[in-house]
Write a structure and sequence with these properties.
Order of helices and strands: EEEEEEEHEHHEHEEHEH
Strand order of the largest sheet: 1-12-11-10-9-6-8-5-2
Distance between the termini: 18 Å
CATH class: Alpha Beta
GO molecular function: acetylxylan esterase activity
Protein name: Acetylxylan esterase
Number of strands: 12
Structural class: alpha/beta
CATH topology: Rossmann fold
Enzyme class: hydrolase
Domain BD-FAE-like: 75-189
CATH architecture: 3-Layer(aba) Sandwich
Shape: globular
Strand content: 15-25%
Largest sheet: 9 strands, mixed
EC number: 3.1.1.72
Length: 300
């Protein structure tokens, strides 16, 4: 397979909204059979922490889910006659403080279902447990979720070789590290589910954070890109407060390793738009992502 490496610099224009497909009631499963690894404290009850005066996204509020102690996956399946066997685990962002659960979770599931993909929204632990490895608990939950989904592949009628991961902002860090660590499980195996591979077959990182050292264009020293790293799709705005180097540098490393990647850098758009369409071209990234998935033969 020849590497695909595309950079798009796009200026603003007006677009119509994406078609809306309402995802059905999901099947919800706990990620862990008991207490997640490393948990020692009891947090307040899980709750939406959105305030009345919080910034609206495309004119609408978002769910800011906080104090998550029981990680779960919510499985949204497309209609049987539309399902194509591909699945994606979705990691919402929120700075490892909260989860933007609808904006970067359930709304993403609706889009994926609309193109025949089984969508799995991961509710990972927040706030961060370890200030020195803020991604630690989130990556543990994401790795376990990958194994859990793959262990149900036959039952859910998905291809175990076409299970990807998608993440936004801090969720992009979570998804990216899950893809980059591949088989480096960040916790001790707890049951037979952990005998199943944690490796995503592809990754989609949308305005991802946490790939480079703060204030630099250098990847963290724990990030290693090899020829076995999964293919990746990136979308980022050049004026994002989260440095565009998070995708530029990682995409460059993928190119050097001969790993297929597609990179879309938009002139403007900022941060935290999810899939909500505005007059900013960056909010049309799902169309480009779907085209990439077709190119990679992940969907028809």
């Amino acid at each position: 397979m020849k590497p695909v490496f595309l950079i798009a610099l796009i200026s603003a224009s007006v677009f119509t909204s994406l078609p809306q497909v309402v995802a059905g009631d999901p099947m919800v499963l706990n990620v862990w059979p008991g207490t997640p690894p490393g948990e020692t404290k009891t947090l307040p009850a899980e709750a939406d922490q959105t305030k009345p005066d919080d910034r609206l996204i495309a004119g609408r509020r978002i769910i800011k889910l906080g104090n998550v102690s029981t990680p779960q996956i919510a499985v949204y399946r497309p209609p049987a006659d539309k399902s194509n066997g591909t699945a994606v685990v979705i990691c919402p962002g929120g700075g490892h403080h909260i989860l933007a659960y609808d904006l970067e979770g359930t709304e993403v599931a609706e889009w994926l279902n609309s193109i025949g993909v089984t969508a799995i929204v991961l509710k990972y632990r927040v706030p961060a447990r370890d200030p020195d490895r803020r991604w630690g608990a989130a990556v543990q939950d994401a790795q376990r979720a990958m194994s859990l989904v793959r262990s149900h592949a036959e039952e859910w009628k998905i291809d175990p070789a076409r299970i990807g991961i998608c993440g936004f902002s801090a969720g992009g860090e979570t998804a990216g590290l899950t893809a980059l660590f591949q088989e480096e499980r960040q916790y001790e195996a707890v049951d037979k589910v952990d005998q199943v591979s944690i490796r995503p077959d592809f990754a989609m990182l949308i305005y991802a954070a946490g790939m480079v050292e703060k204030g630099t264009a250098q990847l963290h020293d724990y990030i290693k890109v090899t020829q076995d790293t999964p293919p990746m799709f990136f979308a980022h705005a050049f004026d994002d407060r989260v440095s565009v180097h998070n995708c530029l540098t990682l995409a460059g490393a993928l190119k050097e390793a001969g790993v297929p990647a597609e990179l879309h850098v938009y002139a403007t758009g900022g941060h935290g738009y999810g899939l909500r369409v505005t007059d900013q071209p960056v909010t049309r990234w799902p169309e480009q992502a779907a085209n990439w998935m077709k190119t990679m033969k992940l969907i028809p």
